[in-house]
Design brief:
Blueprint lengths: L4 H21 L3 H25 L4 H31 L13
Helix pairs in contact: 1-2, 2-3
């Protein structure tokens, strides 16, 4: 059974809006990062749907590259969150408004 391209784009756009809402509404750093991950997964889903629709493998190859970049971004972001939690004692994003050493 082949899923229509419009349905794939609808699900990807719903996921993207949910991730954007999670990133903008929440105050905790972990939830903001989860929202960014959901948005990246929505973009990957749209790329896979487009590559299947146009029968080109380029989109799927790009998604594999996107997943590798996303995995490294998660590792770096999680390390930063642990460091900030250790240094400031909180995970509320409003407390990290100054960029100084």
């Amino acid at each position: 059974m082949i899923v229509p391209f419009e349905h794939v784009l609808a699900i990807a756009s719903i996921l993207f809006v949910l991730g954007l809402t999670c990133s903008l509404v929440r105050r905790q750093l972990i939830m903001i990062l989860i929202g960014v991950e959901i948005m990246l997964n929505a973009a990957a889903l749209a790329l896979i749907g487009a590559s299947a629709f146009w029968q080109q493998i380029d989109g799927q190859v790009f998604v594999v590259l996107l997943m590798a970049i996303t995995a490294s971004e998660v590792a770096v972001a999680l390390a930063m969150v642990f460091y900030l939690r250790h240094r400031k004692g909180t995970m509320i994003a409003d407390h990290f408004n100054r960029m100084h050493g």
